Amino acid sequence: MGSARPLPIEPPTTGWQFPVIDDVEPEGLVAMGADLQPGTLLEAYRNGYFPMPVSTTAMGWWSPDPRGVIEVANHHVGRTLRRSMRGFEVTINRRFAEVMGACGDPTRPHGWITDDICDAYVTLHQMGWAHSVEILESGRLVGGLYGIGIGAFFAGESMFHHRTNASKAAVAVLVDLLRPHHALFDVQWTTPHLETLGAIDMDRSTYLGRLAVATAAPGPAWPDP
Known about the structure:
Layout: E1 29-32, H1 38-46, E2 50-53, E3 59-62, E4 67-71, H2 79-85, E5 89-92, H3 96-103, H4 115-127, E6 130-137, E7 140-150, E8 153-161, H5 166-178, E9 184-188, H6 192-196, E10 199-202, H7 204-216
Parallel strand pairs: 8-9
Antiparallel strand pairs: 1-3, 2-3, 4-9, 4-10, 5-6, 6-7, 7-8
């Protein structure tokens, strides 16, 4: 899986100032606009925001209340999933752009991953901040996920699967990486699908407290691409 990169590259700081979250409505749309430069994205994640377009021309910055998280200490892998995982090969940070392309497939319902978003996160990947878990079957990519890692914090952005249990396998692999660091695993909103992966709701104030601790703590030594 390559050699471990000791530290990611810290980009120039953003020129944008994000508003205070305290009075934001529960659905979580905090602001619109800004840009997708590395410094802007990292500042957003460190302060509890994530980007998601609200239209084809407007970028929204979100901080929902409650926030969906997967508690890595309590995550359980059942026997059926363990059996499925024996037939998969796992790589990390080997096929990041391909994972993003599969997550951004325009035929998927509710797609939101644009070319600009792909370019921005590939740049963060090259700098050591964005990571992917790839699930392969006979050398072919059949599932995976990607997100942002800052210390002991991981913001899961999207996942996909072309084989049953492939996305669950990717989550299980990621949790195994995060658990020794008592990491905060953010999944944005708790959807019915994410609940099957162990996601729960966390109120915003608790999330922000956990976030501050996690981003300042050491996390996994992610493999280089």
